[in-house]
Write a structure and sequence with these properties.
With 301 residues, the protein is an alpha/beta fold. It has a domain of 210 residues: Rossmann fold. Helix content is 39%, strand content 19%. The protein contains 13 helices and eleven strands. The strands form two sheets. Strands 1-2-4-3-5-6-10-11 form an eight-stranded mixed beta sheet, with helices on both faces. Strand 5, helix 3 and strand 6 form a beta-alpha-beta unit. Helix 3 packs parallel to helix 10. It starts with a strand and ends with a helix.
């Protein structure tokens, strides 16, 4: 694994890389509150065959981009960042774009705007709110009121931001709450880049602030079905069996001629990449191999 940064118009986006240098075969975007390193156990084995990168989105992990909660207009800001990433990566063949939760929604936004850069999507329980959900969330334009009215955002704002050490954070999280079903070293890797040392060695604090995470949860104003229906590239969509946030995926899949494969992964929740990385990795490999076959056909013409 190697770390790198990309220069965007208003700062630096951090990322990690597996496999050989060069244009990526696969780019992965994380969920709200997480970071690229969280998914190392999922991605590292793929580096033996493919060029893989994962990115810390604005306000997350080690990226250094302005992240003012009161100025977050919606997830379109994350989508615009991904368009800037396309430019920063330079020319290269279309790659597989994968995303978990919010990362899945951002992947759809980017693929809609720049289908020439995206060979296909692999969406891991992407956030796909319905129009009714959006109307209820935005009944008040005030961010604090939206956070108060949304349990997951309210909980994020109350998150403990400080621990004496990263190990203390790991011990506090392991087997509890959202982390209860995570396998392997996913939790350790999340904490590694999810917390940063405080000045004077006074413990560690969240790299994605509780207020930014809460604001992100309370700013998902895209219509999931409409967005996916507008995406013209093929998409593989994996859904958690319990607690999925892909509320409108069936509606979207029925309204487009582009190839859509929707699969519910038995025994999983919204955190399916951390629960069944073996299955997710298989679907990523299938998308990567399909991309390679298409590229070979084009070169023969």
């Amino acid at each position: 694994m190697r770390r790198f940064t990309l220069a965007l118009p208003d700062g630096e986006m951090a990322g990690i890389r597996f496999g050989a240098d060069g244009p990526p075969d696969l780019v992965l975007l994380h969920a709200t509150g997480f970071n690229a390193l969280t998914y190392r156990e999922l991605l590292e084995p793929l580096g033996e065959r493919f060029r893989i990168i994962a990115l810390d989105q604005r306000g997350h992990g080690l990226s250094r981009l302005p992240a003012v909660p009161e100025e977050l207009p919606g997830w379109d800001l994350y989508g615009r960042d991904m368009l800037a990433v396309f430019d920063a990566l330079g020319d290269g063949p279309p790659f597989v774009l994968a995303g978990h939760s919010m990362g899945g929604a951002v992947s759809m936004m980017a693929a809609e705007q720049r289908p020439d850069r995206v060979a296909s999507l692999v969406l891991l329980d992407p956030v796909m709110p319905t129009e009714q959900w959006i109307d209820a969330l935005y009944a008040s334009p005030d961010l604090d009121k939206r956070i108060d009215g949304l349990p997951i955002a309210r909980g994020a704002r109350r998150r403990r931001a400080w621990f004496a050490s990263k190990q203390e954070a790991i011990d506090a999280y392991r087997g509890r709450g959202a982390f209860a079903s995570w396998v392997g070293r996913f939790l350790d890797d999340y904490v590694e880049d999810g917390f940063a040392p405080m000045p004077d060695d006074d413990g560690v604090t969240l790299t994605c602030s509780a207020q930014w995470e809460a604001a992100t949860f309370a700013s998902s104003r895209h219509n999931g079905a409409d967005l996916l229906a507008r995406v013209s590239v093929p998409a593989t969509i994996l859904i958690g069996e319990k607690g999925s946030v892909s509320r409108s995926v069936d509606d979207a899949a029925s309204r487009t001629s582009a190839r859509r494969t929707v699969e519910t992964v038995p025994g999983t929740t919204h955190f399916l990449p951390m629960e069944r990385p073996d299955i997710v990795r298989q679907r990523l490999i299938a998308a990567l191999e399909a991309r390679t076959q298409v590229g070979r056909r084009h070169r023969r013409r």
